[in-house]
Write a structure and sequence with these properties.
With about 120 residues, the protein is mainly alpha-helical. The protein has a domain of about 80 residues. About 75% of the residues lie in helices and about 0% in strands. It is rod-shaped, with a radius of gyration of 27 Å.
Length: about 120
């Protein structure tokens, strides 16, 4: 009986050592609070990258808007306007036909209104 208890104790001790070694070697997660400036800046970059896409540049040219002027207007937009436009960009499909006609018209109208308003 004592041999059985001793074997059980050794197995528990080995399991504990294995768990302790795993805890020591496991990478730690580091989290930090990001500021609103960083979020708004990333949203601006997403909108600007969407405006740089070849199909969007062509669509902007069709309505007479220069893509670089549209990018400058995005820089001049307020944070809430950028957030709204970034949400529209997020709704776009990831591949294949990138923009439906309705989505393209909405984005072009927003950019056109901003170009005219500013």
């Amino acid at each position: 009986m004592t041999h059985r208890i001793r074997t059980l104790f050794i197995q528990i001790a080995m399991l504990f050592m294995l768990a302790a070694a795993g805890a020591v070697l496991m990478p730690r997660a580091h989290a930090a609070v990001i500021g609103t400036d960083q979020v708004v800046q990333s949203e601006r970059e997403r909108v600007k990258s969407a405006l740089e896409r070849p199909d969007v540049v062509q669509a902007l040219k069709k309505v007479g808007v220069d893509a670089s002027a549209a990018g400058a207007r995005v820089d001049a937009m307020s944070d809430s306007e950028v957030a709204q436009l970034a949400n529209l960009v997020d709704l776009l499909p990831a591949g294949g036909q990138a923009l439906t006609n309705q989505q393209l018209i909405i984005i072009l109208l927003i950019v056109l209104i901003l170009v005219i308003a500013l």
